[in-house]
Amino acid sequence: MLFSSHVFIFLFLPITLFVYLSLGARSQYSKALAWLTLTSLVFYAWWNPPYLAMILLSCLFNFGIGLALNRPSGTPRFRRLLLCAGIGADLLLLGYYKYIAFAVSSLAWLFDKPWSVESPLLPLAISFFTFQQIAYLVDVYQRQTREYRFMEYMLFVTWFPQLIAGPIVHHKEVLPQFASRRVFHFNPRNLAVGLTIFTIGLAKKVLIADPIALYATPVFSKALEGGTPGAAEAWVGALAYTFQLYFDFSGYSDMAVGLGRLFGIRLPQNFDAPYKAANIVDFWRRWHITLSRFLRDYLYIPLGGSRCGKARRYFNLLLTMVLGGLWHGAGWAFAAWGALHGLYLCINHAWHALRKRLGWAPGAGGWPELVAARGLTFLAVIVGWVLFRAEDFGSAMRVLKGMCGVYGWGGASPASVAANKAWPWLALLIVAVNIVPTTQEVMRRYRPVIEPVAPLPEAGWSRRWALGWLWRFTPARAVGLSVLFVWTVLYLTRVSEFLYYQF
User: Does residue 290 contact residue 270 with C-beta atoms inside 8 Å?
Assistant: First the structure.
């Protein structure tokens, strides 16, 4: 079930929230948790009911492994084997559904054999709940968690605000909040804050991400069919997809945070204006924050991180990012996208090391350096998104060549004329993503996420600008938000999936 659908907004969410708060008002806390778990399973099964059994069995298996790991009588060797078995089973399930066809086709190409396997229908959110449960098993193995009841564990894995596209939450971030009785009772502030953030996210998705996709899709479709887009078309396609993905994922992240707050729960921040990043390291601190955290804590650091010398550090970065790229999709283009960002990170770390040796202080160049750094980072990210979006290497190279002007500017073709109409909107979005505060910054006085929001600028026009955006619940803003909600709902004429919907 999609957040941006009528059935979710006007049926599922109101019923779920009303029954949850009604049970909480009568102090029936266990029933409220059970109700949330049940409705989350309904939410998951809405698209394809047979896969409900798969996620239930996955939760039951991992919960059992967790119980066994928690036993004080287990020997270190037995616990290591048990952890490996649990993680291995999780990865086998993910590998079968997501990578079996890709692996067979790659082997067929390598050995020049006519092998092929039909790709099974990918279960929703399998990448997300697999990583979430692997993190849980590792935490149990390291004695960083307590024993939970099965109902609590099920809710941790399947809770619908974060199930489909994240954030990838830790048990210690969500379950202790559900242990607090006050989250079950009606709180007008939670309702107001949650609906505000949800509406902002819905508007980003419906009013910005979906319309801008109309400029991106034709360019990449043309390249896939062997066409050669001119420079105007190619740049419009690449920039349009860059902003489509930005507002799509930003909108989803806001909606997830808003939904969590409706139920009295703060989720971790998963998106923090990544196009304001001044380098690639900063970009990955801002884009899909919980995925970056998972890859760092459960892959990069166990591989050795930066503890084994520079060469090993760069290898670990590259391997982590290649695997992170494959997590996004089963294809060599995704692996190449991950490898490209791994290379970016290696260059970034090497540059910082060189600056340190030469005594060049960060930011010494003032705002010209900041503008140049942001521009270069943004350009590098756009090139990566072309690989991420393209169906194959051939179409990706045609788009990149078009961006370099290999096929000319584009002339007066209908596609070029249509592309030229997009430039004012793209220019406006470039300015907006660089100067408009994030939803978390706008709502900072209400602590929208678990993490503290970055402090306000100390002085000057930037502080006045930030203060002007701070949200206050006034009658005028309530009317404005209501108009935005109605306007957005009127544009829900077709169901549009989130780009991270089926990972």
Answer: yes
**Three-state DSSP class for residue 331:** coil
In the chain, the amino acid numbered 243 is: F
Give the CA distances from residue 80 to residues 83, 84, 133, 142, 216, in Å, rounded to whole numbers and listed in that order.
5, 6, 16, 10, 48
CB 426 within 8 A of CB 238: no
- CA-CA distances (angstroms) from residue 274 to 70, 348, 435, 452? 39, 16, 12, 17
Q: What is the pLDDT of residues 12-32, one digit of tens each?
A: 999 999 999 999 989 898 999
Mean pLDDT calculated for residue range 47-76: 89
268-281 per-position pLDDT tens digit: 999 999 999 999 99
Which two three-digit tokens encode residue 115? 């092998």
pLDDT at 414 over 70: no
Three-state helix/strand/coil letters over 250-273: HHHHHHHHHHHHHCCCCCCCCECC
Catalytic residue from among 171, 328, 341, 349 = 328
Mean pLDDT of all residues in 305-311: 84
Cα–Cα dist 35/15, whole Å: 11
Residues 74/67, Cβ–Cβ less than 8 Å:
no
Active site residue 328: yes
List the beta bridge partners of residue 287: 271
- Give residue-wise pLDDT tens across range 317-357: 999 999 999 998 888 889 999 999 999 999 999 999 888 88
What mean pLDDT comes out for the span 140-150?
A: 85
Would you list the domain boundaries of the chain? 6-187, 286-405
CB neighbourhood size of 15 (10 A): 11
- What is the model's pLDDT at position 306? 81
In the block, tokens 């009658």 appear at 475
